[in-house]
Design goal:
The chain is 49% helix and 14% strand. The protein is α+β, with helices and mostly antiparallel strands. Strands 1, 2, 3, 4, 5, 6, 7 and 8 form an 8-stranded mixed beta sheet that branches. Strands 9-10 form a two-stranded antiparallel ribbon. Helix 1 runs parallel beside helix 4 and helix 9 runs antiparallel to helix 11. Bound molecules: flavin-adenine dinucleotide. The site of flavin-adenine dinucleotide has 19 residues, from strand 1 and helix 11.
Length: 387
């Protein structure tokens, strides 16, 4: 790391540990919510510290961090439970390359400034891993599109004012291909079907949204007609790498806290840290964290160096697969080391035990990551992927 990277890492660590972590239990016990003034202060601080829209280029008002620097920041933010770290905002950087001037001024720049909030509606009841099987439709009508369909698990839809909607084009030369369209949440025909409860306790909910004859101008389409899937893949690579980074941060905190507890907790006349059964859990956790961190950092560096897209795709899948499964193993061991305390919601291990589970599911399940890796391995061999 350069001096600048180390400073960035320290700033992110201090923000996570001193500003966000102290509010975790309050959020956990209040359905994920904190008082407005606290959330506003966290948002303001994040921006002042250089963590506002870290993924976006400077020309659009973002922080313009490299992939490696973003991984460093996200790793520290991963130390925090209850989604409190989501004040470090990462709008999709690929938008900068494809958005029209109208889209830049209407949605992208206000989002970068923290004035607008977006959410993403791709998954459906009948299509998650198999994104190509979505049935929501985008029908052209003159210079408008008409959107219909029901979308599941739309993260942050309760807080967002616009949504990226993915659907299948019903007619025209690209009929059958997918299109991505941005829709304001207050557009007639957008409706919350219901808001299910999930394992974690976050202020951001994941409602099911219905789109019923929603009309948007052609100017709301992102990129060329039929280009929808291209964006999804680019987005997945970025999100998967950042999940890997956050999982490393979560694991590090769990190891630190479990080690500290093990040194203090006395059973049968000795600190439990003296017992090999406990030592082995901690040692295995540290070994796996180091491996996951090296994979994550190396992948980020390769992306900054312009590695080819297929290599990036396989490496991001490897990092996400390994880091998310590692973090779940570490959380399980941490609960065990904390004993009964590890089952209390006020304990960090209990919260991470629930929260980290989704890291093996969203942005492509572990099984899908394995399929991607095996596909690349079969086609290209080991060297292009792992050097
Ligand atoms: C909390 C949360 C937030 C989310 N946020 C969003 C969001 O904001 N926007 C959005 O669009 N989506 C979101 N999702 C959806 C998420 O991306 C999907 O849940 C995920 O991609 C898996 O899809 P699925 O749930 O339909 O499972 P399925 O695709 O039905 O998979 C079920 C099981 O089958 C396995 N499986 C499927 N295909 C194969 C195969 N070929 N080989 C082996 N095993 C296979 C899977 O690995 C899994 O174990 C969110 C999900 C959750 C839980």
């Amino acid at each position: 790391m350069t001096d600048e990277d180390r400073q960035l890492q320290r700033r992110a660590r201090t923000f996570a540990d001193e500003e966000l972590i102290p509010y975790e239990v309050e959020a956990e016990l209040n359905d994920g919510r904190l008082p407005d003034d606290v959330v506003d202060r966290h948002r303001k601080l994040a921006r002042e510290l250089g963590f506002g829209a870290i993924s976006m280029p400077k020309e659009l008002g973002g922080e313009g961090l490299t992939m490696f620097q973003q991984a460093i920041v996200q790793e520290q933010i991963g130390r925090v439970t209850n989604g409190l770290g989501w004040v470090v905002h990462t709008p999709p950087a690929w938008l900068a390359g494809v958005a029209t001037p109208h889209q830049i001024t209407t949605w992208v720049e206000p989002t970068v400034r923290g004035e607008r909030v977006e959410c993403y509606a791709i998954t459906e009841e009948g299509a998650g891993s198999d994104v190509g099987a979505i049935s929501a439709t985008v029908r052209r009508d003159g210079d408008e599109y008409v959107l219909d369909g029901e979308k599941w698990h739309v993260t942050s839809a309760n807080l967002a004012d616009h949504v990226f909607f993915q659907g299948v084009l019903t007619e025209g030369e690209h009929a059958g291909a997918q299109a991505l369209v941005v829709v304001d949440m207050d557009a007639p025909g957008v409706r919350v079907v219901r808001t299910p409860r999930y394992s974690h306790t976050l202020a951001d909910h994941h409602p099911i949204l219905a789109f019923e004859g929603v009309r948007v101008p052609e100017a709301n389409r992102i990129g060329a007609e039929g280009d929808g899937m291209r964006f999804v893949y680019e987005w997945f690579r970025y999100e998967r790498l950042m999940i890997a980074a956050r999982c490393c941060g979560a694991a590090e905190r769990l190891i630190e806290e479990a080690t500290e507890f093990a040194k203090q907790r006395v059973a049968f006349g000795r600190p439990i840290a003296d017992y090999q059964a406990v030592q082995f859990m901690l040692a295995d956790s540290l070994a796996e964290l180091w491996a996951a961190r090296l994979m994550t950092y190396e992948t980020a560096r390769e992306m900054d160096a312009g590695a080819d897209e297929k290599t990036q795709h396989a490496q991001c899948s490897l990092a996400k697969l390994y880091a998310s499964e590692m973090a779940n193993r570490v959380a399980d061991r941490a609960v065990q080391i904390f004993g009964g305390r590890g089952y209390m919601r006020e304990n960090v291990a209990e919260r991470f035990f629930r929260e980290l589970r989704v890291e093996r599911i969203w942005e492509g399940t572990s099984e899908i990551q394995r399929l991607i890796v095996a596909d690349q391995l079969g086609k290209r061999g080991t060297a292009p992927i792992v050097g």
